[in-house]
Design goal:
CATH architecture of the largest domain: 3-Layer(aba) Sandwich
Distance between the termini: 61 Å
Number of strands: 8
CATH class of the largest domain: Alpha Beta
Number of helices: 6
Number of domains: 2
Largest sheet: 6 strands, mixed
Oligomer: single chain
CATH topology of the largest domain: Glutaredoxin
Order of helices and strands: HEHEEEHEHEHEEH
Length: 176
């Protein structure tokens, strides 16, 4: 009897394990454990904007920051930008700023912004941006990746993949 059940049982365990792995690696879109993630490297960094002017990110300390890691070649990144622009404009008076850190070069961002209107600051960080994203919880190395940082500099919430204005508003409301 056990011999007849052994093969289907093994398949069932393999399927359950595979399902868990797929959920954990690809479908789990947010991580709320921000206590272990330090924003110090972020606020210590300076990156060029789309015009090539280097700006210190320390200028945004003390604000609620919606930090979006993206790239010009990333389709989901480009799709979420209009909603990020709307959020930036709607919450500017509430001490909230949206920042876009591109895993790209200045020339790519400059070319991108010539054809696409973005209302929030964009910075070219190239691979240094991925190091900061990893430090802030992007253990999957995916783009887009968004981090909501409280005014005290602690990580409030992180999101893997494409986000929406509604998702971010839900995250922001408790910390406003």
């Amino acid at each position: 009897m056990f011999a007849k059940l052994k093969t289907p049982l093994i398949y069932l365990i393999l399927i359950a394990g595979l399902g868990f792995a797929i959920f954990h690696l690809f479908l789990n879109t947010q991580v709320e454990d921000g206590a272990q993630q330090s924003t110090a490297p972020l606020f210590a960094a300076s990156f060029p904007n789309e015009k090539g002017e280097t700006k210190p990110l320390s200028a945004y300390q003390g604000k609620i920051v919606v930090l979006n890691f993206w790239a010009t070649w990333c389709e989901p990144c480009r799709e979420e930008m209009p909603e990020l622009s709307e959020l930036h404009e709607a919450y500017a008076a509430k001490n909230v700023v949206v920042l876009g850190v591109a895993i790209d070069e200045v020339s790519a961002i400059s070319e991108f912004t010539n054809s696409t209107k973005v209302s929030y600051p964009l910075f070219a960080a190239d691979m240094a941006g991925m190091e900061i994203a990893t430090n802030l919880g992007n253990n999957k190395g995916v783009l887009p990746y968004t981090v909501v940082i409280k005014a005290d500099g602690t990580v409030h919430q992180t999101f893997f993949g494409r986000i929406s204005k509604a998702m971010l508003e839900k995250s922001l409301n408790p910390i406003l």
